[in-house]
Amino acid sequence: MLSAIEISRNTKLEPIGTIGERLGIHAEEIIPYGRHIAKVPLHYINEEKIKKSNLILVTAITPTKAGIGKTVTSISLSLGLNKIGKKAAVALREPSLGPCFGMKGGATGGGYAQVLPMDAINLHFTGDFHAITSAHNMISALLDNHQYQFHNKPEQLDSIVWKRVLDVNDRTLRNIITGLGQGSRTDLVETGFDITPASEIMALFCLASSLEDLERRIENVVLGYKQDKSIFTVKDLGVAGAITVLLKDALMPNLVQTTENTPAFVHGGPFANIAHGCNSLIATKMALSLCDYVVTEAGFGSDLGAEKFLDIKCRLAGLQPKATVLVLSAQALKLHGGVPYEETKKPDLESMKKGIPNLERHVENLRSFGQSVVVSLNHYPFDSNDEMEYIRNWCKDRNVAFVVNYGFEKGGDGASDLAKAVVKAIEESPSASILYTYDDVDPLKIKIEKIAKKIYHAGQIVLGPKAESKLKKFEKMGWSRLPVCIAKTQYSFSDDPKLINAPKDFTLTIQDVVINAGAGFIVAIAGEIMRMPGLPEDPQAHRIRLVNGEIEGLS
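RESULT FIELD:
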């Protein structure tokens, strides 16, 4: 089989205007970024059409370091839906340069289920990440200028909580000191860099419903605390309008195409282990306005991405998935069954059976939200028939729809069975209203506790002194009704990445909590979470190069 990048080069792309015209976007209104990428004006969002469309969520069991195949499944499901005669699109997050040049090498799907042009999407694309980085760091510069201009005056802030961001994995920037060599009017400040997908600007950008809402959210961002300990926001700094201007064009969703020339919206990119892990609300709504079926993906396992998609994004926007696809691989189940990663490609039915509790936990969790679940086995050539049949029978015994997805190898034809199963699930038992994990009126500590116990199956939560003090402070400041976004490892239900499979009755320790008032949620930090990742010993950058004018090393 050809490599992902070879398949992408061999695919004949259609002009992006043609893709837009099929969706009903007028040629003169589409905003092209070259021949195969475009932005779509926001006025194509139609709230009445959204109510009639079918939103499908794709999530996964607890992933391995190689991933599970959610993006391949999301793209191939959209291809399969088009193959069986449905008007469908996929809505995905944009890749971050950090992982592309670090571990992954790309995030546009794989095999015959890709969004294209993959090299452009994986790299600078339409500049959205650069715009968000610039907007975030412009606030930093303006905030430092405020401190400089009001040095030793009542207006000078007592403390700053706002850092800078960069879309590069650079561990040396996690902790820095600013103000060196600037003279007596500048204090030395301990600060640092986060990666751009961890920026609150990214989080609020992906939850904004309009330019006006974007500006309102930017105004609410907390930058620090005044001398009297009251909050200081972007509104107080007086620059929300300027920051909105930097993001004006970026807010329009990006339209591209798949390996089968079907529409794809790729927009926004917060990580799911440190943020809410969903593509932009605007892109999701745009796709729902223009198509009858929309497939969207939530990052990492359902304990992270799906929980946040449902409890934060859907709660905010009033969205309602009609079905949820739970992706798994036999390889991942073997890992949860105790097999070393290097051995997971070998047939091992008994070890796979030992990993089944992880699948069971994710199915139970999704059903607890009121979701109709379809289990999709992402097929690999090394999967044995015995392993696939065991999972099929396991699902049948529990009345869970099950499909083997061959989308990676066969594109839409390989995902047609999955598409039919999803349509059947929607038509026979459309999901009822979402049963949220917690209520808006619950105290913040109770919200954290409900997620930990209901979704993670923890026995108890422990709040560190800093977290407990800040939660009380946040509630006094009127933030008690905000949803909670727990930041934790993606490799376990717990806060310990080594505690695999389906642990229960463990203690989840919340070390700190952070207010993201602009995004509209509280971040509760569990375990060791790096908001600025580092590079591996052998980064993918070693393999990315130009060969005869073609980019190699992306996948």
